[in-house]
């Protein structure tokens, strides 16, 4: 297979050594901005939320509609004031009135053991159905232009940027001459936890973007009605949002931990895992290591799908011309990587499913490739009954590949690892561990 180069969206990171602590005052402002601001305009009129049920194939509006809406699309109650809307949806300007839009938490607001957590990836979300059915309920003649997700709980986040930047000039003014920057919609991206950012020098799965870039976080603002001036006005708020992200801490494992087994697991982890994933505790280390694709062996689609055409367009754009902070020099060559970044593992117990495409539902499967299910589904609930405390991750049920007659929304509930972008091979480093060693490592991971 020819080598496909992963391109960064900004320039190299020059700061050596440890990561600076977040500014607490700015972090407080950033939290308020993130939870209380509509940074983009609405996609749907207000009645779209109330009428969404008409696309569900039912004869009347379900009782307990708010909960039914959240379950339908994999959304969660907002742990902050949000006008009665689920986390990820927001009231925003729509033409000359108020409508319903989305914000960062539609993907970056998840739930574990029934508790909504800002910054935890939303691994229940069916964002394709959310857009498709709310457009239909809103009687809006808009078609979803590509697959927003192939499997529930994942998204085509990279494809959104590739598609939307195709409608922008380098200064982010809109153009009617669409440029195809290599749009592909089969990467099946799992959403990483925001609290991991504080340890990283580079971010995104290929590790090719500066972790302190503010503008790179603003790509989601490429709503068709967002002006260049809107980006400029929002940038100071996003500098505060970044500080909020850098202040986040992972949730603690809430169940009993076998301390003796965890201590033994720490030793095994140090021998077999720390060189890529770092060490933990007060004097933690993190190597920010990119593991070559040929070595890690995980699904290559995410690496391949963001290609040179998008990289070149991004390098010319407003997003890549960031100067504040002293880390950015216009014209600096784009950073290339050879594979995927091994992430920090803080709060890893809460971040199932695993791998960059969510193809492995438990830590037991991460450490034993023979234990990974081939085709599976799960409840997509996030309560205690949905969580597998023994294997650490989500309870799943193995099923047959979905038949051609299955509806699209039901098909997305089935994770078929034989499909493009959904492979669960690779990362076989735990296969040679003895069962008791593997169990000990999993016990230790609960403590991170």
From TrEMBL:
Task: Give the species this sequence originates from.
Answer: Fimbriiglobus ruber
- Protein name, entry field: Cytochrome c domain-containing protein
Q: Where is the Cytochrome c domain?
A: 260-448
Keyword flag Iron: yes
Question: Which region is the signal sequence?
Answer: 1-21
**Keywords linked to the UniProt accession:** Heme, Iron, Metal-binding, Signal
SUPFAM superfamilies, A to Z: Cytochrome c
| A Gene Ontology molecular function term of the record | electron transfer activity
């Amino acid at each position: 297979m020819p080598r496909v180069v992963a391109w960064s969206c900004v320039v190299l990171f020059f700061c050596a050594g440890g990561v600076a602590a977040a500014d607490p005052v700015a972090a407080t402002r950033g939290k308020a901005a993130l939870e209380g601001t509509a940074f983009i305009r609405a996609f749907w009129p207000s009645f779209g939320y109330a009428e969404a049920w008409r696309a569900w194939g039912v004869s009347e509006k379900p009782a307990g509609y708010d909960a039914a809406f959240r379950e339908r699309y994999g959304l969660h109650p907002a742990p902050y004031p949000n006008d009665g809307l689920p986390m990820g949806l927001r009231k925003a300007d729509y033409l000359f009135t108020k409508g319903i839009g989305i914000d960062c938490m539609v993907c970056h607001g998840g739930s574990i053991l029934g508790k909504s957590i800002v910054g935890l990836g939303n691994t229940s979300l069916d964002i394709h159905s959310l857009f498709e059915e709310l457009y239909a309920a809103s009687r809006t003649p808009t078609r979803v232009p590509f697959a927003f997700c192939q499997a529930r709980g994942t998204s085509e986040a990279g494809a959104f940027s590739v598609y939307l930047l195709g409608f922008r000039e380098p200064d982010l003014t809109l153009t009617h001459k669409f440029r195809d920057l290599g749009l592909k919609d089969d990467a099946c991206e799992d959403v990483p936890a925001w609290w991991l950012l504080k340890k990283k020098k580079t971010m995104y799965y290929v590790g090719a973007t500066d972790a302190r870039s503010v503008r790179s976080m603003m790509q989601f603002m490429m709503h068709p009605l967002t002006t260049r001036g809107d980006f400029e006005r929002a940038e100071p708020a996003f500098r505060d949002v970044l500080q909020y992200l850098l202040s986040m801490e992972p949730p603690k494992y809430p169940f009993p931990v076998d301390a003796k087994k965890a201590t033994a697991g720490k030793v095994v982890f140090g021998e077999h895992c720390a060189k890529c994933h770092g060490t933990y505790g007060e004097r933690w280390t993190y190597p920010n290591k990119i593991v070559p694709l040929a070595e890690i062996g995980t699904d290559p689609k995410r690496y391949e799908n963001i290609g040179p055409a998008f990289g070149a367009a991004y390098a010319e754009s407003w997003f890549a011309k960031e100067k504040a902070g002293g880390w950015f020099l216009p014209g600096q060559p784009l950073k290339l990587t050879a594979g995927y970044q091994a992430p920090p593992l803080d709060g890893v117990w809460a971040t199932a499913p695993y791998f960059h495409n969510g193809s492995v539902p438990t830590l037991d499967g991460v450490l034993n490739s023979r234990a990974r299910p081939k085709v599976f589904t799960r409840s997509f609930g996030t309560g205690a009954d949905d969580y597998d405390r023994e294997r650490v991750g989500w309870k799943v049920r193995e099923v047959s590949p979905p038949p051609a007659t299955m509806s699209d929304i039901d098909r997305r509930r089935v994770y078929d690892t034989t499909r493009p972008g959904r492979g669960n091979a690779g990362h076989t480093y735990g296969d040679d561990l003895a069962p008791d060693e593997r169990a000990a490592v999993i016990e230790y991971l609960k403590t991170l």
